[in-house]
Amino acid sequence: MYKRVLLKLSGEALQSKESGGFDQKILETLAQQIKEVHNLGTQIAIVVGGGNFIRGKFAEQFGVERTQADYMGMLATVINALAIQSALEKIDVATRVQSAIPMDKVCEPYIYRRAIRHLEKERVVIFAAGTGNPYFSTDTTAALRATEINAEIILMAKNGVDGVYSADPNVDVEAMKYDKISHMDIINNGLGIIDVTAASMCHENDMDLIVFNINEYGNIKKAINQEEIGTMVTRK
After folding, report:
1. Complete edge-to-edge strand list for the sheet that includes strand 209-213
2. Distance between CA atoms of 196 and 179, rounded to whole angstroms?
3. In this predicted structure, what is the pLDDT of residue 18?
4. What is the chain's pLDDT, residue by residue, as a tens digit (236 residues)?
5. Which of 46, 69, 103, 126 has minimal Cβ neighbours within 10 Å of its Cβ?
6. What is the SS3 assignment for the chain?
7. Which domains, from first to last, does the chain contain?
8. Distance (Å, rounded) from C-alpha 57 to C-alpha 225?
9. Measured between alpha carbons, how far apart are the two ends of the chain, in Å?
């Protein structure tokens, strides 16, 4: 069983189909799954996206300058981080939110030594606001933070996608699912399951990932217990 992991969540995984934003029932289910693995003794850090509210690239299409759009996206991740914190603390899981953009009224600033200390004290740590810089995705944030806190693996939770495929399985019925693949194969074949910067950083730091479907209850626990699930992404 992994002892310290980083869970990467997309904002879309929290999204309400009816109204956008986030779905309270999804948050409650997610929190319960996290509590189950937390009770097993696994230290858990989380990076969450903000795509259920806004994505920098999409905002740019509406005339918002790219740098400004990316900062808007970072603020969206803070909203999601606070929502996850609330859901976890309702079921008695101690949680801290750390933001790459200082906002002392609502959360802590990101300090990696403090983050590690929180993990050692059995608190779930949620990293918000990406890296604090435009032009970097939350996938890259996950790769960076996982490396900084010495996580054993990144759990790349996808919304309705159960692994890495040779093509988009929603478009190509002949798309082949990989049980195992390398970071460089993802980059060289343009598979797009994570962005190139994140894949390159994981390759350079020998950081493995498990790509799996977050929508199936119990998959987080299966991933942490190293059961065969989704796709394993490794250096080799």
Report:
1. 108-109, 95-99, 124-128, 43-48, 4-9, 153-158, 209-213, 231-234, 180-182
2. 20
3. 72
4. 899 999 999 998 898 777 678 889 999 999 999 999 999 999 999 999 998 888 766 776 778 888 988 999 999 999 999 999 999 999 999 999 999 999 999 999 999 999 999 999 999 999 999 999 999 999 999 999 999 999 999 999 998 889 999 988 888 888 999 999 999 999 999 998 899 999 999 999 999 999 999 999 999 999 999 999 999 999 98
5. 103
6. CCCEEEEEECHHHHCECCCECCCHHHHHHHHHHHHHHHHCCCEEEEEECCCCCCCHHHHHHCCCCHHHHHHHHHHHHHHHHHHHHHHHHHCCCCEEEEECCCCCCCCEECCHHHHHHHHHCCCEEEEECCCCCCCCCHHHHHHHHHHHCCCCEEEEEECCCCCEECCCCCCCCCCCEECEEEHHHHHHCCCCCCCHHHHHHHHHCCCCEEEEECCCCCHHHHHHCCCCCCEEEECC
7. 4-234 (3.40.1160.10)
8. 36
9. 22
Q: Which amino acid is at 107?
A: C
